[in-house]
Amino acid sequence: MKKLYVGNLPWSVSDDELRDVFAAVGEVRSARVITDRETGRSRGFGFVEMEAADADRAMEELNGQDMNGRPLRVNEAQERGRR
To answer: What is the CA radius of gyration of the chain?
Structure first.
């Protein structure tokens, strides 16, 4: 299982729309657009979990792909350090 970071998302994208884009490449375990805690608006990025082979294919095929006029940035998510 790999977790992918998806950046440069259009502000209007929902979790379901994000899932649909990645489902075209392989089976999606989870897809989540990150929102601001106070306003509830999208922060312009999200995370998708897929099996390793599907995730590698998604990075290759979807990185740079246009979504509503914005080129997606797709790469393997890095664990965040402690704050």
So the answer is: 12
First to last CA, the chain: 25
pLDDT value for 83: 67
59, β-bridge pairs: none
CA distances to 18, 53, 56, 64 from 13, rounded to whole Å, are: 7, 25, 22, 16
Separation CA 56–CA 53 (nearest Å): 5
For residue 18, the surrounding DSSP H or E stretch is helix 15-23
Averaged over successive runs of 10 residues, the pLDDT of the chain (83 residues) comes to 97 96 97 96 97 97 95 93 69
Query: What does the buried/exposed string (b/e) look like for 13-32 if buried means 16 or more CB atoms within 10 Å of the residue's CB?
Result: beeeebbebbbebbebbebe
